[in-house]
Fold these 2 entries.
Entry 1:
Amino acid sequence: MVQKIYSNAVAALDGHLIDGMTIVAGGFGLCGIPETLIAAIRAAGTRDLTVVSNNAGVDDFGLGLLLRTRQIRKMISSYVGENREFERQYLAGELEIEFSPQGTLAERMRAGGAGIAGFYTRTGVGTSLAEGREVRVFDSETYLLERGIVADLAIVKAWRADPHGNLVFRKAARNFNPLAATCGRVTIVEVEEFVGSGEIDPDHIHTPGVFVQRLILAENNEKRIEQRTIRAEAA
Amino acid sequence: MVQKIYSNAVAALDGHLIDGMTIVAGGFGLCGIPETLIAAIRAAGTRDLTVVSNNAGVDDFGLGLLLRTRQIRKMISSYVGENREFERQYLAGELEIEFSPQGTLAERMRAGGAGIAGFYTRTGVGTSLAEGREVRVFDSETYLLERGIVADLAIVKAWRADPHGNLVFRKAARNFNPLAATCGRVTIVEVEEFVGSGEIDPDHIHTPGVFVQRLILAENNEKRIEQRTIRAEAA
Amino acid sequence: MEVLPTGWTRNEMAKLAAIELQDGFYVNLGIGIPTLVANHIGPEIDVTLQSENGMLGLGPYPMADQVDADIINAGKQTITELPRTSYCSSADSFGMIRGGHIQLSILGAMEVAENGDIANWMMPGKMVKGPGGAMDLVAGVRRIIVLMDHVSKDGIAKFRRSCSLPLTGQNVVDMVITNLAIFERPDRQSPFVLRRLAPGIDAALVADLTEAHFER
Amino acid sequence: MEVLPTGWTRNEMAKLAAIELQDGFYVNLGIGIPTLVANHIGPEIDVTLQSENGMLGLGPYPMADQVDADIINAGKQTITELPRTSYCSSADSFGMIRGGHIQLSILGAMEVAENGDIANWMMPGKMVKGPGGAMDLVAGVRRIIVLMDHVSKDGIAKFRRSCSLPLTGQNVVDMVITNLAIFERPDRQSPFVLRRLAPGIDAALVADLTEAHFER
């Protein structure tokens, strides 16, 4: 059987990191982000990255780590708050940002992964994000043309995988991960747990193994919480 | 709680059948087709239907039943073999057919359900199905513009549902069903089995209840097999 | 400087918005005041809350010992599941939104214009953080209610002839609930109508503090 | 009428096609002769078969007591699961195909042209049944191998200057395996090259029975 499971992130990333490349990353905020692979890319020092990710992490966690080391040249994101270093680099002209509305960004990843070159959405019509984009009327509604995204590498966090690369995500940590998995020319996945071949019910698989080239066991599972909100016992 | 579960197909379809309407149906061949709802539409006698379905059933099963009674005016399908009555009506000019390649048809349903007016695909470029469609080059590849589909009514077959309309499909009977469920203005689902609220793991739900307006227990579960292929014990 | 009447509290505004929720609705609540709406959904109606990060059926905040980093809403707050909860990818989640399957979204705004335009993603003089899911919500959800203060901290009317800030969406707002009044329109071709005044607020004051044209 | 040498049997053609399957490949096999290719995949390579109706990881035909109406391939034949099997919707399945995630598809054809065009969905003189998934497969899968008889029942060359029948796809075929010969090209800008002859078949005969230009 083709061996998709690698011993660690360095081994899995070997041969797939090139300065100037485009990387797509799963995760929403700090939820479901590939912590182990981000740390390994930081250690590898790959530069001039274009990173496609809904958010940019915080100063000392997530993609914020790659911003600190100035490894990222451009972000394609929907929201980049909660990150002072991002703001500093952006205002200093050291970092480029392309905003995509969140649903458009998700759909662009899915489209890139599914061989759809472009699609028409109502999102963003009449806003500054529509500038330079084709506008078109279908059935008297106005739509914008948005393009699919294909990245050189996808980094993904899943909950469980089997040796074939079949993936299951856990709760709201699914978010952009299955989409990122489809739109990388190479997709590397870190998981919290490996299970044996045949141990995942074929109706419960979220991402089929065809999209996954390499797998590692996640070593970093901090899963930091951005907004810890709780209610009192009595509520 | 809003009551989505209806006592039978007649009750669930009540108020939703109008001559000349468009109905999208799940299923691939005879696998995963909404047998009970098809029978009820036949009994209701609704006419001049446009039916969006990958296939058209066989002479005496599936959508073939609605062809026999001449309730269908037009089919939008990828493949309509295995149906002599279809052929007879088509050659007699009594039935209109719009062919969509299978993947394009699936994507058109998904697009319609997801508010995507149109998308660009390489499928069909240079073929007779590209006639009258916009052709466009992205990154030196040629693509066709295809339109999303929204139907007046979706009829869907699922395996299990909870009272909220959360659906689970079984094996290859999933096929077009989750897509049809998204692109009906009203979606009615027949299931083999109801389970209680909270009994489906939230990570195992294929179609969230937001897409489902009405549910019934399937009364017809013949699940006819088109090509019964078996191997000998020794193989 | 004259002290202006404050009208409804934020909690009262949320309660007024909650009246708009109907039995069986699927609803997306924005960050900030709109989140408070959840506290006012009565047990007599069946409403399912959606969060655009891929969760349908949001439960309340967890007890301290229930906190799960993988169960968060779009505001990145920890929340809980309900028996009806399902998860999906961000693409499928925005499929619900863009495809018109969510009946109602209640959002905050910096400005709303009389033609239904909304501006709520770029703060004047601050770095642009991005639209998040706001542009998708206003473009895709069938009905949009805005909860906002009637005037800005500087006393400037937020319900305007036209938005001065970059738009989030064009002609998408159906109802505006401020601390002073409620404006609504029956469809997106019609002008807004003043529907209700906060206690102690009269129509003349609202007219004074509103730049938008509205009917009475 | 002269009796033509028949060359490879259908089973031998399938075996020759199976050589093109590499370790780790995801492969879609068309209906008819291509289905036979599955019988020739050796245990030394790890190949996953995909079926466009939403099944990845196809197992063999079931025993009589294993038949399950919900486990079928795109030819509507009953099949079985493997430990690697997963199911998905038709949209996700064609996402794999259209997105270039399937390495190889082996299909039947009525005609192939020297420029790589293929015609395999409309039979002359018969009612059009529709393309099914064939147009998606030839447009989306990275490499396309066609298995077909060298000449039609009427003795007409099927590998042609240009297709006479309506096309399924333009410039998409990479390899043609007939009962008489194998033609291949290194990329889709290059002409086809005659790679191999069936036993007892000489190049002159192949040239006689081929309308397409090919290199030797």
Entry 2:
Amino acid sequence: MTSQSRTERFVRKLARGTSRRSILSRIGLGLVSAPVFPLLPVERAHAAKDRSVQAKTSFARHAQTTDDTKCDYWRYCAIDGSLCTCCGGGIHTCPPGTEASPTSWVGTCINPDDGKAYLIAYRDCCGTADCGQCYCDNTDRGNQVYRPQENNDIIWCFGASSMEYHCSTAVMVGAAE
Amino acid sequence: MTSQSRTERFVRKLARGTSRRSILSRIGLGLVSAPVFPLLPVERAHAAKDRSVQAKTSFARHAQTTDDTKCDYWRYCAIDGSLCTCCGGGIHTCPPGTEASPTSWVGTCINPDDGKAYLIAYRDCCGTADCGQCYCDNTDRGNQVYRPQENNDIIWCFGASSMEYHCSTAVMVGAAE
Amino acid sequence: MKKAKCLAIVLSLFSAAPAWAGGSASPAPVPEVEESDVAVLPPAGAHWMFAYFSFRNLAQLIDGDTGKQLGGVHIAQLSNIAFSPDKKHIYVAETIWSKGNRGTRQDMITVYDGRTLKLDHEIPLPGRLLAGDRLNTFSISADGRYAYVYDMAPASSVIVVDLEKRKVLPPVEIPGCALAFAAGNTGVVSVCGDGSLAVISHAGGKAEVTQTAPFFDAGEDPVYDNSVFDAKSGKGYLLSYSGRVYEVTAGSGSGAQIAQPWSLQEGAHMPRAETKPLVVNWLPGGQQPVAYDAATGRLYVLMHKGEFWSYKEAGEELWEVDVATHKVLRRAALDKPAMSVAVSQDKEPLLFLAEPGGAIHIWDAATLSEKASAASMGPSHFVVAP
Amino acid sequence: MKKAKCLAIVLSLFSAAPAWAGGSASPAPVPEVEESDVAVLPPAGAHWMFAYFSFRNLAQLIDGDTGKQLGGVHIAQLSNIAFSPDKKHIYVAETIWSKGNRGTRQDMITVYDGRTLKLDHEIPLPGRLLAGDRLNTFSISADGRYAYVYDMAPASSVIVVDLEKRKVLPPVEIPGCALAFAAGNTGVVSVCGDGSLAVISHAGGKAEVTQTAPFFDAGEDPVYDNSVFDAKSGKGYLLSYSGRVYEVTAGSGSGAQIAQPWSLQEGAHMPRAETKPLVVNWLPGGQQPVAYDAATGRLYVLMHKGEFWSYKEAGEELWEVDVATHKVLRRAALDKPAMSVAVSQDKEPLLFLAEPGGAIHIWDAATLSEKASAASMGPSHFVVAP
């Protein structure tokens, strides 16, 4: 395993790079139009580059690609919460009456159909109470709050007009080259 | 069964007697010192007067007098909610941090030790979230919201400083003569 | 699924023949980048309904044909919810404290758009009754112009809200009475503690209250708060604990007509149930024990075997009753006890049945067979699309 | 109990020999009239603890000796709770919107009296992180003078609150770091995304931040946010996913000392666990996976058999570890998997273990045998009396 992959450096840079005088640190949570973590990470994940079959996690070995309303759907390798696909939304669509948070945490998941790794942004839909359907808590490469963008326990509604958590989507960002 | 007992007339009188110009109807809910339903019904219940053994409900036949943390304790014949005896309070004692509502609904329960009927005031303890322990929903002579003082679904925190329901006590008012 | 873990000590032999290669003949291409978006609802279907529980914060909008959740609306604890008759809006009557359990009390009707489920506006209210599991403390007039909110503070009143002008009219006091069933366009029916009804008519701008004579024994055989009333026809059915049915007609002019009561048990060729103790009867029960199909004139009632005062007991059977003939047409045994029943208001009606634990069963009312299922967050109630 | 119904068709033969006359030899006299009152707590016991779940609104105060609930404190969702070191106050760090899911955001420390559990006052905060299941985003200095609140908005900072003056000091920014473990009277330890610590010292009024060198691999083997730190001794134990233990000493002067890490598995005569996939090891896991008894120097760790990245998995065994010798002294199998563990801080320590469903088991730490049990409202966390 690479212990200092580009993903990790990217996340760390992001976290540490928010200088104390940065305008970003002054932005209130009500400001929808100014996401403070980037909408889509511009650097691609690298951690999974050298993941051979042997390197697969238990989740990846048992994942499927046909039913995105089940916890073992491949993109959900690090999701935590209710699946928006069970709540009136879709894999990248928030249910009616909610708002897609401009901020998200990320996971690197392997698509069993091609064996390749993809970067997934878990974007919370915010504004109304927990959907309560299809609760999943997958933990592949899940980290703690000091690595926020890899942590799925944080309420990722920063930048949305409400911090009330409803459900989580799994948005394809691109291949983890 | 008497269909027009004194209890019922009392309750109806109470409900209807709140004239539209009454000062009572103007009292806000924040006013702790002015209970708008009486603290203790001054007229005693009469409904159970002629309750022979044959007239007993299923609850009364199976009630016990030794453990007030169980739903089948005799005083709980019409209680609905968490028992304060399981929440840090007692049979007529609210748990720390809560407030005894000056208002209550009432039940007429039979004490198996003497076979007599007693009037019980179910006084809610208000101010913090539902205790969640020892939930009971007994329904002897339970009525609907148009007979409010016999209804156990109403949040009986009128007159308390918070309408947040925590648990219910079962206060002895006296014999139902 | 995710908890099913393989606990073989070492899995390194896994390397050959990956499991994921088996199923998929032509793997779908994986899209490169996706945009986040937000769903908008199609026009409301006749089989849509809200399922909600008084102590949870989400009213789930469910499509009865599939059991799928289409979206959700935030509700404070102890809220009411309603569709506008044209289904273009969702109304939530709710009470919120500024600091959760403390602070400033705020009563309001919160109005959501029926397609986007976005909050449109709030109409502040002077108050409302806080009680668990009550459906008829809030209703909408047949034409959708007015909302009626029952308040007990503790004096009883009905708050009339002009939804078009977003304005609260002066409360109508109904001492000794409760509930607010909309009847017609300008009528409201309340039930009184002496066994009578109070009927409000606010046609012409000024509210008048008419009182009927007492007609049921409110002490010995109460009628359910969660009885049923159809605002359009002005016809309702008050169901008593013992299974007596009182047909009420109101909404055109003042007052109300009450028909001679009849017995559910007699409709099923049994002696009518009595209120005396130590006798087990088939009795109605549950939280939302009765539903009414206004088109077919059928009542659906949750029934259980029990002694009197077991009015909250979940149903073991569902009885289908013809209000014209007073006959029980069919009795269906329930696999699991049900706390709530509702019926959609269309030509191919669905029945909704809620278990105490939250499981929802959706039946075809024609065949009484299960068509779909859903999951809710407790012993839920139903509000069906108009 | 109440649902157990006798369904014999007619019970009228019941008249003779009433069941209730059997048990009671000398019936207690029934008091005539009672007054309502409100309980006040005795001085806090060493075996008291709060059990709470991030998504429920009551923190239950439980006496570990009996499992009985002594009272409750209202908490907003995603709150933290703490005792003052003298047990005279309860602090809740919470975030409340003025309209539930909308309106104005209000962050505060709500201060309750430790005997009456009445709200004493609120100290408004400029913000705090909202995250599920986090214990160390809030802490109290050893002497009880200061509270530390971790905020991420999304810039990282620690909010220092003077509890005596009820005043918030300027936030201390800790870019790239998180959490707020109190260390001593004026120190705070945070963990950083590069595997280092940031150590705040605010002695003398001005906050200074010292950064240690990176010492753990935050990408490949993170340490748990819910690791343990004893503010009085300034000693803490950061536990990694793989079971490495990092002893940290801080709070006297600036910076922190980090000892050579050691392995839980090696302490149990096994090879140390590695992070590579496809291997099953005994690993720590759960929501609150480790507890620390500062007097005996024992760690209690929830352990399960699993592959790496199973760090949220509930424990199958509880391991007792001596931090001086790094030896696993005892391994106790759990009848039911546990998500959380805590230990009381007294001479006769109790262990608290929470099942995912909310059941709480209370063990005598000396014998690892169950002493009492309690019921909570979900996968709860514990905060024990100081």
